[in-house]
Amino acid sequence: MAETGQKIMTDNLIQPFQMAKSGVRGRVVRMGSVVDTILNRHGYPDAVARFLGEGLVLAAMLGGALKFDGIFTVQTKGDGPINMIAADMTTPGNMRGYASFDEGLIERLAGGNSKRDVVTYLGTGYIAFTIDAGTDRKRYQGIVELEGDNLAECMENYFDRSEQIETLLRVSVDKVDGKWRAGGLMIQRLPDESAAEISQDIEDENWRNAQALARTVTAEELTSGVLKSAELLYRIFHEDGVWLYDPQALEDQCSCSAERVKTTLKTFAGDDLEEMATEGVITADCQFCSSKYEIHLKDLA
Questions:
Q1: Is the pLDDT of residue 18 over 90?
Q2: Is the pLDDT of residue 8 over 70?
C-alpha cells in the first residue's frame, strides 16, 4: 500500500486510489454522521432512506472526479412509491439530499415484506446525473432508464451504454448500532499512458482481475464504522498493490441561502410576487435542509 502525502481522515470522505500495476483507478466513499444527519432530518422510512443514501454515495463517488468548482447531482424520477430522489455534492464535498414519496404505499410495502429493488419502490422512470459548473461552462446531463436491483446497477447501465469508460460500482446503506452509514466502491478502466507497450490482452486481463477483486467487497465492509478506507482497499487489492491519493472531506452542508432565494424571486414579475406574499412577506422553505426564509417585498425592489 503506497500513499501520496495522504491526509489523516477516517470517515465522511472520498478516498481516490489507483491500482499500482494497471490502468485502473477508483474511489471509495465512507459516510457516517453526514448520511445519518441527512436521512434523519426528514424522518424518512427505512426504505426511502436506503435509496436516498445510495443516491448520496453515487453523487459523492462520481462527483469526486470533478476538477473544477461545480455541482454533481444524481436524480431519479419514476411512477413508484418513491417518485423522486435528489442528491448532490457541491465541490469540494458539501452533501445534501431529498426524497419525495407516497407514505401510504411505502407503509403497505413495508408490511408485506416485499423486495427492496428499484422496480418495486421507484417504478418505471429514469435516473439522471447532471454536472453544473456555473455560467462559464456548458451544463452536462446523462440519463438512463431505471433498470436494476439498486441505483448503482442503474448507473452502471449508463456507463455501459453511453460512455467509453468501463465502470464497476458497489454501494451499501444500512443502520449500524442504530445509526445510518453508507459506503461505496467504484473502479474504472482508464487509458494507461505509462503502459503503451502492454498488449491489449494484458490490459483486458488486468481489468477482469480488478473487477473480480472489487466484487469481493461486502455490504458490511462498505458500511463498517471500524474498517478504515485504506484497510478496506488493502483487503481487496493487496495482491496487486494500490496507490492512495489525498482524500476529500464530506460535510452535511446545503447550498441554500437567503441571497439565493432573493435572486430567484427577482426573476418573477411584480404582480406574481404580490400574489406570493402574505402581508408583504414571501415565505420559502428549502426541501433539502428544511431551512425557512422570510423575504420582504421591499427587499426585492
A1: yes
A2: no
Convert the pLDDT of each residue in 229-286 to its tens digit. 999 999 999 888 899 999 999 999 998 888 888 988 888 888 888 899 898 899 998 9
275 and 208 fall within a common domain: no
Q: Is residue 262 part of a domain?
A: yes
Q: Which element (helix H / strand E) includes 260?
A: helix 258-265
Task: Please say if the pLDDT value at position 196 is more than 80.
Answer: no
Do 281 and 133 lie in a common domain? no
Q: How far apart are CA 47 and CA 30, in angstroms?
A: 20
287 domain residue, yes or no: yes
Q: Cell for 204?
A: 483486458
Question: For 162, how many CA atoms within 13 A lie in the half-sphere containing its CB?
Answer: 13
Per the structure block, which three cell numbers stand in for 95?
Answer: 452533501
How much is the pTM? Answer: 0.90
Q: What is the CA radius of gyration of the chain?
A: 21
What pLDDT is stored for residue 4 in this prediction?
Answer: 46
- The CA distances from residue 30 to 180, 181, 183, 253, 284, in Å, are 11, 8, 5, 16, 33
Regarding whether 296 and 227 lie in a shared domain, the answer is: no
Which cell numbers in the block locate residue 154?
442503474
Span 24-33, average pLDDT: 96
Task: For residue 284, give its domain range.
Answer: 258-300
* 269 in the same domain as 243: no
- pLDDT tens, 100-128? 999 999 999 987 766 788 999 999 999 99
Element (H, E) at 8: none
* One domain, residues 162 and 273: no
Q: Give phi and psi for 79, each to the nearest 5.
A: -100, 20
d(CA 215, CA 30): 17
Please, what is the Cα angle at 61 between 172 and 88, to 5 degrees? 95
Let me know if residue 3 belongs to a domain.
Answer: no
CATH label of the domain that carries residue 239: 3.55.30.10
